[in-house]
TrEMBL record:
<dbReference type="InterPro" id="IPR028939">
    <property type="entry name" value="P5C_Rdtase_cat_N"/>
</dbReference>
<protein>
    <submittedName>
        <fullName>NAD(P)-binding domain-containing protein</fullName>
    </submittedName>
</protein>
<dbReference type="GO" id="GO:0016491">
    <property type="term" value="F:oxidoreductase activity"/>
</dbReference>
<dbReference type="InterPro" id="IPR036291">
    <property type="entry name" value="NAD(P)-bd_dom_sf"/>
</dbReference>
<feature type="domain" description="Pyrroline-5-carboxylate reductase catalytic N-terminal">
    <location>
        <begin position="3"/>
        <end position="91"/>
    </location>
</feature>
<keyword id="KW-0560">Oxidoreductase</keyword>
<dbReference type="InterPro" id="IPR051267">
    <property type="entry name" value="STEAP_metalloreductase"/>
</dbReference>
<dbReference type="Pfam" id="PF03807">
    <property type="entry name" value="F420_oxidored"/>
</dbReference>
């Protein structure tokens, strides 16, 4: 499985770092172009590359890591998703009233199998080694596609997190969004 990021900030670099350490190829992208990411991919190592958003979005599993106001622009004009997995790491800083942030994202990425994850953790907990002597960092995720959630679970477990299925995009998304009971819950699972 190959991976991509739409956005290349702190969260994208943290996730990419874990993936590269586990032996996976990752294509990072941002709105400023691949040339602006040369230092980042050099630091991450030879399994990391810089590409356009279209190139990153062609991966089997793509992490959307932009700030909330950029979600629409980041997803606009990308090629058809054709069932690839889009992991939404964003947090909505606006009242959506009728839908969760990931339902909003899913509407803007037709054909993607959306999984919500990494949004409940502060970046420092994502970047740090998720394995501790006391246990592994819990990582909540939600989605409507069971196969996509199973694939995500396998990847998250493989990079060291203790993944926990929080349910559907609507119900789990509500638990995970800012103000929800799982938001900013940093806990370890004892293995």
């Amino acid at each position: 499985m190959n991976f991509g990021t739409i956005g290349a900030g702190t969260v994208a670099q943290a996730v990419a770092g874990h993936l590269v350490t586990a032996g996976h190829k990752v294509t990072l992208s941002n709105s400023r172009g691949p040339d602006t990411l040369l230092d980042v991919v050099t630091r991450l190592g030879p399994l990391a590359s810089a590409g356009t958003a279209d190139e990153a979005a062609a991966a089997d599993m793509v992490f959307l890591t932009v700030m909330w106001p950029q979600v629409g622009d980041a997803l606009a004009g990308l090629p058809e998703w054709d069932g690839r997995i889009l992991v939404d790491t964003t947090n909505a800083f606006a009242d959506l009233e009728v839908e969760t942030a990931s339902e909003f994202v899913a509407e803007r990425a037709p054909g993607a199998r959306v999984v919500k994850a990494f949004n409940t953790l502060y970046a420092q907990y994502i970047a740090a080694d998720p394995r501790h002597t006391e246990g592994r960092q819990l990582l909540f995720y939600a989605g409507d596609d069971e196969a996509a959630k199973a694939d995500f679970h396998t990847v998250a477990d493989g990079i060291g997190f203790a993944p926990v299925d929080a349910g559907s995009l609507r119900d789990g998304g509500r638990l995970m969004q800012i103000g929800g009971p799982l938001s900013a819950l940093h806990a370890l699972r004892q293995d």
